[in-house]
Amino acid sequence: MAGGFMGPKGGGGGGGGVGYPGKLTRSVLISCVLGAMGGLIFGYDIGISGGVTSMPTFLEKFFPSVYRKEESDKSTNQYCKFDSQILTLFTSSLYLAALASSLVASYATRRFGRRISMLVGGLVFMVGAILNASAVNIFMLIFGRILLGFGVGFSAQSVPIYVSEMAPYKHRGALNNVFQLSITIGILIANIVNYFTAKIEGGWGWRVSLGGAAVPAIFISIVAWILPNTPNSMIEKGELQQARDMLRRIRGVSDGEIEAEYNDLVAASEASKQVQHPWKNLRLREYRPQLVMSVLIPALQQLTGINVVMFYAPVLFQSLGFGNNASLFSAVITGLINVVATFVAVFGTDKWGRRKLFIEGGIQMFIFQVAVAVLIALKFGTSGKVTELPEWYSILVVMCICIYVSAFAWSWGPLGWLVPSEIFPLEIRSAAQSITVSVNMFFTFGVAEVFLTMLCGLKYGLFIFFSAFVAIMTVFIYFFLPETKGIPIEEMRVVWKRHWYWKRFIPDQDHQVNGNSV
């Protein structure tokens, strides 16, 4: 049996023991990569929001008070020039809708399968994009954002589960991290689109930016329509022979070689059917470790402050004294760094393990968030006024932000989605993933809602505020997260049973896995 994490200094998990045979087949590679592309719609929205809110024509039409403040008073405190509750509502309303929809998506994912939830997410997101592009008033704009949120909620609920269930356990980390990679690609594409649409004469470039969200939505809808269901989902619906055939095809081995994994999936499904109320079961003591992780990991992921940088990047850079085009271009740079650094996680998660990347990324983020706070404090002080920002100083700020972004991109970004999706037993998987998505969206909403107000009030101290949470979460991971590298998803219970703290919550009775007692 694979070894678990034995204490704060232990990290092992991936050792020998029971393992299922399987190859990284062309079929599973295509299915996982295309499925993980569901993150494109989430990423595109994160990137597009900050860009359009820095476009003067967009502000003039929908947020005239912010536009007048920016245009008429060039001496306005840089920290407070974009402080507007209606403006933050435009950005944050999507995440509140995603929170609500993820609860509905939990039932849909379990009842109808993972790909149906992905399909619904893509279609609803497309309708929201069309509404945003054609908006003539703030109501249409916000309503469109809410529909986008529903699409994101369904996709974020179903995609990580889909990939975790399809992928061979030895490659689960790499394939699941493609979801985060697709989010970063979506952000980069959005930043590039914003950079060029801002130059369109006539001031309607923001419509192209917002309407462009329909492109990844159509792509995801088509992908979800043609993708096969996971063997787990087929078994849950009683399609046993189809599930067996699918498992043999995606593992690339003989019928006899998939027998052990197939039997474990069927057994897990039978146990799942005995659970009539998965939400109620989540409160059971034996699921306490998974419940804690499903809440704290997504919450702490957002309290790194990353979305402050990503969806407010143009506004943030403009507040730091960059010109409009310069701020959009700087956002493109951070988006590019985000994509490149995510490849470290794609190729390194199954090699180095989750814990090492979590801890290294946390330390790096902490150092460079503090560095950004110091640089801003030295130049802007508490007044927020600066007459001139030297080019070398601007480059230094952007470099520090890029190093911070790169650390997130290979640690808390992808692992914040991967780890929760792989630790839940089948009987509570959909409900627990729904909690992960809901908590993620709740904290994303909260951070988006208060960021501009906090920037105005805390000034450079805002980055110190987030760096404190980075320090807390790094310590939390060091002591309380066991290593899950190289452990089959249906065997994950052994990880908690061998952990120095969580073992007290796991019952002592034998747990049958592959016919062997743990």
Structural class: mainly alpha
How are the strands of the largest sheet arranged? 1-2
Listing every helix as H and every strand as E from the N terminus to the C terminus, the arrangement reads: HHHHHHHHHHHHHHHHHHHHHHHHEE
Strand content: under 5%
| Rg for CA atoms | 23 Å
**Overall 3D geometry?**
globular
Number of strands: 2
Helix coverage percent: over 70%
The CA-CA distance between the termini, in Å, is: 8 Å
Low-pLDDT parts are: 1-17, 510-518
Largest sheet: 2 strands, antiparallel
Sequence-ordered SSE layout with sheet pairings:
Elements: H1 26-36, H2 39-52, H3 56-62, H4 64-72, H5 85-112, H6 114-133, H7 138-166, H8 172-197, H9 205-211, H10 214-226, H11 231-236, H12 240-251, H13 259-273, H14 278-281, H15 288-302, H16 306-311, H17 313-319, H18 324-352, H19 354-380, H20 391-409, H21 412-422, H22 426-458, H23 461-480, H24 493-497, E1 512-513, E2 516-517
Helix pairs in contact: 1-7, 1-8, 2-7, 2-8, 3-4, 5-6, 5-7, 5-22, 6-7, 6-9, 6-10, 7-8, 7-21, 7-22, 8-9, 8-18, 8-21, 15-21, 15-22, 17-18, 18-19, 18-20, 19-20, 19-23
